[in-house]
Specification:
- The protein has one domain (6-162).
- It is 65% helix and 6% strand.
- It has seven helices and three strands.
- A three-stranded antiparallel β-sheet has the order 2-1-3, covered by helices on one side.
Length: 209
């Protein structure tokens, strides 16, 4: 598992740097009603577009690695990833309810956008509201980088004909009791219990025998 989420971590750091700059620009904006709506909309739209780009990169990498775990060659895995991991695949994930976040990525993005517009229209300390919005957005973007990794791996296993997978938990003393209890358990691939908390980096491996 050592580098399972390495691609996601690199993408998260990259997105965080860009989002920090984007939200920082809001602090320089002129604050009349029209400019607030336009400026906030631009920040979220550009940040969401960046997230989609990064998520697709994460998904392809995770899919290829998972395919190789099932015995596929790197070349075969890359070919399958090109066919299966598309923007349409990603949008399907981002437009579906998520058991960890308890919301739909695309809808929550619009809600966050509207909340910030309303907060900036009423707040005395606008910079504090921008900083708070950035923290919430960073949390959303980071969690979905994990979700994309997990979903891509699971779809790779399905495509390779894997029928059962094993749940793996990193037993480092920081794991929750639920994750600890699931460690080593084997599930039918379509009956894997969902993750239930932010930052859960338990992972699935194929049962090939």
């Amino acid at each position: 598992m050592t580098d399972l989420y390495a691609m996601a971590d690199r993408a998260i750091k990259s997105m965080n740097r860009e989002n920090l700059k984007a939200f920082g620009r809001l602090k320089l904006a002129r604050w009349d009603e029209i400019n607030v709506v336009r400026a906030v909309g631009t920040v979220y739209d550009e940040s969401a577009a960046l997230a989609r780009k990064r998520y697709l990169e994460i998904a392809k990498d995770a899919y290829i690695r998972a395919m190789v775990e099932t015995g596929k060659t790197r070349k075969e895995a890359e070919r399958d990833a090109w066919e299966d991991i598309t923007m349409l695949w990603l949008l399907g994930l981002l437009e579906a309810p998520d058991p960890v976040t308890l919301y739909i990525f695309t809808e929550e993005t619009e809600r966050k956008k509207q909340r910030l517009v309303e907060a900036l229209s009423a707040a005395h300390n606008k910079n504090a509201e921008i900083d708070k919005a950035l923290r919430y957005w960073t949390k959303q973007v980071g969690q979905y980088a994990i979700n994309v990794t997990d979903d891509a791996r699971l779809d790779a296993f399905r495509s390779a004909g894997v029928e059962r997978v094993m749940w793996n938990t990193n037993l480092d003393g920081r794991e929750c009791e639920r994750c600890k209890a699931l460690n080593g358990k084997v599930f039918d691939i379509d009956k894997v219990p969902p993750k239930q908390h932010y930052g859960d980096r338990c992972w699935l491996t194929p049962v090939l025998a």
